[in-house]
Amino acid sequence: MSDEDISFQMVKSNASLMKQALDELRKSATKFICFNDDMNYDDEEESRKVRLLLNQFYQYYFPLPSVFEHPSGIENQFQNVQEYKEWQKSFKLNKSNSFLNTNIIKLVILIILFYIIQLFFFNFVFTRVLLFYRRQRRRSFKFKHFNL
Fold first, then answer.
1. Alpha-carbon span 91 to 84, nearest angstrom
2. Global pTM?
3. What would the pLDDT profile of 106-129 be if each residue is shown by its tens digit?
């Protein structure tokens, strides 16, 4: 990366100068931009204007959000990587426990369903076999007595 691909800009509390600097950055179309926050936040009105200009600049430069960005209004809940790793470990443990619990519940439901299906199926088959057996007995009874 050459020096022409890099831009450096001091962010001060003067909105008109900041607007000119951001317009120059738009024209240069560099690949890397470094902003150094040197604003005086005591002047709330001027710092609000500068933040608005920076927001507009970023909206111009990056109109579509990255896949890595949080949705609007959501902020990162972790201050450092260690907090995130600890949360991730506890999440994996909780996830594996809930996975185990849901699988046990699914297994119990499946066993109950199989039991119900078995009852209905065998009841149906048993009644059909019983009816078939009774019909056969009646037919054989008729044939024996009437010699048909």
1. 10
2. 0.47
3. 888 888 888 888 777 777 777 777
